[in-house]
Structures
1.
Amino acid sequence: MDLHTDGPTLVLVGHFHGRSTDHVRSALRARLDAPEHEIVVDLTAVDSVDVPALRVLAFASHDALRTGHHVVLRGCGPAVLRMLHLTRLMRFVEVEQQAA
């Protein structure tokens, strides 16, 4: 999985699995220390995701709220949305609404 930043946006590309969670967790922590209050995680180019990866996003959302920040997931494709619903982690994250 590749990760790059675009301002307050973290852009993830490829397969977001447990092996890449440390890299994403570190990037999210760095964003929580930044002055921007909204952190966007762009998942548009994520091909697949597993439960440990989604937990990282859910915990980051929780930590963000405690520090006055806000994490939004952008570009969640069908595979990501399906996993969020199956794991019931959807209730812990905010998914940006896509234009119809």
2.
Amino acid sequence: MTTPFRHTTPPSPKAAEGRVAEAYAQIARDFGITAPPTFVVLSSAPELMLPAWALLRESLIAGPGDRTGKEVAAYGVSLANRCPFCVSAHTVLLHATGDHALAERLARGERPESDVHARVLDWAIRTRVPGADLGPLPFAREERAGYFGTVLTFHFVNRFVSALLTGDLLPAGAQRLRPMRSLTGRALSRTVRREAVPGASLPLLRTPAEGPDGNTRENAANSPCEGPSWASGTPVAPAYAALRTAALTGADLLTPDERSLVEAAVAAWDGAHPPVILRGYPHRRELPAARLALLSALAPYRITADDVAAWREHAVEGDGTDKSGDGEGDGRTDRDLVRLVAYGAFLAVERAEATLNFSPAPARHI
């Protein structure tokens, strides 16, 4: 059977328990798709799956701002990051909002007719470039949590999707056909147009802890922190903070020197896509973990089976990845790969967030 997954074999959603099973139920109810590959691929690392879903839900689905506008923003980010899976997904979701003409204009590579949507699209595309002049916000200031959260969600999602999924949203590439895009969107329309209650995903982020009496209770110390100021007072803030914390723990899969190399390269990145012949990237045989992390940040679609195989084979005791301790790489699990990709991806998200924080307020209320 064909599978949308590359490099990993995620656990079956049917076998999910606890918080992961709760997340799948919420995804089906609020996103309209039962066990979408976007989240199944993260389920090897539930500590990433749960906050990734929470951030998407609380920004795109339940956050402040027009759903169509936020779908245009997500489309623009996905276009800038060269993620065909997500470009197709947001085209379908625009059909689901009822904006069929807009969805098909974007599918043809044309600009939106609406000036507001055109400005949202341009703004979202430019967020890939660190330090870019984004100009005035193309939406009201009180909608920042929804729009910023959506953009940062898909700077993260695009990267792990490009690394770990194929490019086809529908079997046999059926998303290329206009009738299939429209039909799929219409099937989701009731869910997409239903109002979602903000904050419903946050209970998924609280981790249980065992007390001195042996009973399990919610651990307040592990509850999400306040989060960034641009989302202050909204559920987007703790969702973003939880994802950031979970993603950056992937640094423990690298040596200190590898981390320094990757972080310096991402800090110096100008937003450009690399040439066909990769130069200046760590070699897969010498520094395979650093190569995967850096590609995840800058060009995840360039990760190959050879890159992953070299990383799995290159077990070094004490580098944080060989849990078996035998030097053979048996400990390099799918969870490790998901965490490593997420680490690199979130370094790029942080560059995007820094750029967004310098965005001036809108010239007028929109």
3.
Amino acid sequence: MLISILQHTPHWVWWLLAALVSVGVSQTHPRHRTLRAATAIPIAMAALSFYGVVSVFAAQSIALVAWAAAVLAAVVISHAAGVGSKVRWLAAEQRLLVPGSWVPLMLILGLFIIKFGANVALAMHPDLSGDGLFAVSVSLAYGAFSGIFLARGLAMWRVARQAEPSSMAF
């Protein structure tokens, strides 16, 4: 059955996975980033996960509530855990120094695997789109990953604002 699932997966999904892995691997090295560039990925990942919930579970408002609650919880927990605490603002360059980390790659892969698994389950059992437990479970997972991504983006803004509150560059 696994072979059949993999064979029937559209080719563009594998290209998307390759692109996401490439983005994730690029995050493992320290880099200088503008504030806009550093927050683009977290915003894009959160938007894609929100779209994933809305596109499949729009009829179930509990799914949207679960997604939002998970985002909020993940942002709060990530902030308390010090996510982004090693990011530094380079005033002379008007850029962030973002240390390399494997965490973004793990988050990207985790979100991809959950989305892939949910889509396979929905393709095999379309009635799951109306199952409240499935909708809440998937939405909580999407929201948790999105919240961690957003916490990283918010940490970048916080570092830049604290360093130079009057002249933040985009």
4.
Amino acid sequence: MSTKLSIIKPLTAALVAVVALGAVTTGAQAKTLFKDTSLTALYGTNFKMVPTDQTADLSTVTFEHASTHDWGGIFMFIDRHNGDKYDLKNSDGEVTGSKRYKETFGKISPKFKVATFNDSLIKQVNLAGVYEFSSNSTGFGQDNYWAGVGVDLDLPVPGIKYASATLYHAFNENKPDDQKITLTSAWERDNFLIDGYVDFSFNNDDIENNIHFNPQVKYNIQPMLGIDNRLEVGVEYDYWKNKFGIDGVNQNAFAALVKYHF
């Protein structure tokens, strides 16, 4: 590991931990403007590289938290994936058994407000960071750290709940560093909600540029059921061109979902 990464990674991890703790234990000097915690169950098909190049079914349970504060905000999620069985092979390529694919993947993403604007397309400028982690049943694991700058947008579209654009530099553990552009947005009207993100990763000489488009289309059935908490049903679409930077591995997957907000 280079000296640069050996210094940056512990500092970034410490910064993320401090912000996450501050968001959970908001004190008198930090005002909470919005808070949401949810649990989602998904089941879909046609996923690739989980872990083979063949398409596979995948079930996922996602814990998610988002909150905004007068200092900025934090978003985090943890996915637990369970996939199909895959062949285990020895050094000669002979099949020696099978194993079910499992993976834990998550991100912690704080942002810090730098400036705000009134009556402008850009309503807030942020410093942003991401701690990305994962491990799976093949023995692969990673801890990546992103740092960047972004903006919250005030789009003149009825129903828009939020929109943002962020440029990151990613300090990657198992591949050279690269840059990422992340776009997020959400729109809601009459209990219909469409939200999601686009990640574009580029400027890595060892792998292909790749784009990951991951929206969800949901309907809130809370009023229909007369319950206290929001409950959504819908579908998630997952398009990933050159998945993991592998040339020609393009994923088109759909998953049914149920999402419960606490």
